[in-house]
Write a structure and sequence with these properties.
- The chain is α+β, with helices and mostly antiparallel strands.
- The chain has one domain: Jelly Rolls (Sandwich).
- It is about 20% helix and about 40% strand.
- It has 3 helices and 11 strands.
- The strands form 2 sheets. The chain has a 6-stranded mixed sheet. The chain has a 5-stranded antiparallel sheet with strand order 1-2-9-4-7.
- The longest helix is centred in the N-terminal third of the chain and has 25 residues.
- The two termini are about 35 Å apart.
- Bound molecules: fe (ii) ion (FE2).
- The site of fe (ii) ion has 5 residues, from strand 3 and strand 8.
């Protein structure tokens, strides 16, 4: 379906929406950081052997499903060298590093050719907490560039039944 009104008519809305969503994400991250159980409690709740990870890919463990289906909480275990695909998000999300160090690569979306280009890379340490809104303004790849297992907790704004299809928005990248 094509929009019926010129895009420029909505530029003010888009600008204000950007700031509003960014503020909302900061509030989510602050709330998550202040409200989660401590890392030891969370790690102890995982199945036996889970913290070893898998040689095949990073592993995911559901640790909480909101009864009102507003969000789901997963713990991810990353062996050295394991990374997510480059993705935006179909929903708001938040994450907190529980153990070890994660590497996060950020990408900029180009709406004209519908590709993403890496713009920077940062290191996330245990205790770091972040949240981003849905959409393609925030595209990243997350993974473990260290030589030890890393563990992170992720909160997605979908019911557990939609985690597989309703979270990651995979994008093409330009390698520069
Ligand atoms: Fe993500």
């Amino acid at each position: 379906m094509q929009p019926s009104v010129l895009p420029s008519s909505f530029s003010l809305l888009a600008t204000g929406m950007e700031a509003t969503l960014a503020q909302s994400a900061r509030m989510v991250a602050t709330h998550v950081a202040a409200s989660l159980p401590d890392a030891d409690t969370l790690l102890a709740s995982l199945p036996p052997g889970a913290l070893e990870g898998s040689p095949d890919r990073y592993t995911r463990h559901l640790v909480h499903a909101d009864p009102f289906e507003r969000f789901s909480v997963m713990v991810l275990v990353w062996r050295p060298g394991q990374f997510s695909p480059v993705h935006g998000h179909r929903t708001w999300c938040a994450y907190r590093v529980l153990r070890g160090t994660l590497a996060e690569r950020h990408y900029r979306w180009n709406p004209q050719d519908r590709t993403a280009t890496q713009v920077n890379a940062v290191t996330r340490e245990a205790g770091d907490t972040f949240s981003v809104p849905a959409g393609l303004q925030h595209i990243h790849a997350l993974g473990n560039a260290s030589d030890a297992v890393a563990v992170s907790l992720h909160i997605y704004g979908v019911d557990q039944d939609r985690i597989a299809t309703g979270v990651n928005l995979l994008v093409d990248t330009i390698v520069s």
